[in-house]
Amino acid sequence: MFDWNDVRLFLTVARSGSTRAAAQDLGLNQTTVARRMEVLERCLGLRLFDRTTRGHRLTEQGQALCEAAQPMREAAEALSRRAEVLGRSLQGTIRVSAAEVVFSHLVAPIVAEFRREHPEVRIEYDSSEGFVDLAAGEADLAFRAMVAPDDERLVARKLADVAWAVYCSRAYAATHGMPESIEAVRAHAVVAFTGPVGERPGDLWFMSHADPAQVAGRSNTVSNLTGVLRAGIGVGCLPCFHADAEPMLLRCFPPPPEMTTAIWLLTTPERRKVPRIEAFVRLAALRFRDLRPRLRGEGTPAGES
């Protein structure tokens, strides 16, 4: 079977009239071009050129083959153009997993910006508080709040540290006061987390300072616990980037470093190479860099302004 590269060389020699000119056009050695023409002739069992001191002239067989090979060149060029277009296009779907408050406060604006630049990309979003299995293909990307990832099958990129603090409502503070330190939490009613959120080291540290008899309620999501705190039931810990935007909530004392976590962006080695996912990861990293002061809890909470 002949090599398509030899056919490409053949067409170039036929057009230019010599192996020397063809070699110059293609940036190859003339000897290499001449040798490949001989290989092609042997492979096809045809004499394609009359070789003279003035160059290469197509034989009748060579002319017939040239006419047959031209559509091959056009098809190859069309294939190359199509591949180039596909390489530039990011068309497709990105399945993103993130906790609800992370998506609504942090990821949604990035998605909106990304879609303005790439409207051909569709985003599918999973708001599970638990961790989806990226390696099993349950999502393409995951924004996860954790101290550090522990799944060696995944590619992880730390986006930012995230401060957590203790909050209560204005109504609760007016009636019961509010704790001014982590030690003072023991004297207050506490709203606790259950499920994956409650297993964070920072939340376990917070609950170690609470009086079990003072637990007034439990919630399995940040959004639900926020609503409970707004109702004035007790005090609880929330991420500052979320709670600081709540005008009805007060930050009781500065964020303890023991409650700090981080947001990581995770994917698989295979999905990381997909152009649309690579582009989204790049934009997310840039925007989270801009968000770092807010994520560290810097600035004045809305409830105190």
TrEMBL record:
Gene3D superfamilies: 3.40.190.290, Winged helix-like DNA-binding domain superfamily/Winged helix DNA-binding domain (1.10.10.10). InterPro entries: LysR-type_TF_proteobact-type, LysR_HTH_N, LysR_subst-bd, WH-like_DNA-bd_sf, WH_DNA-bd_sf. Residues 2-59 form the HTH lysR-type domain. Keywords: DNA-binding, Transcription, Transcription regulation. It comes from the Bacteria. GO terms for biological process: DNA-templated transcription. One of its GO terms (molecular function) is DNA-binding transcription factor activity. Belongs to the LysR transcriptional regulatory family. This is Transcriptional regulator, LysR family. The lineage of its organism: Bacteria, Pseudomonadati, Pseudomonadota, Alphaproteobacteria, Rhodobacterales.
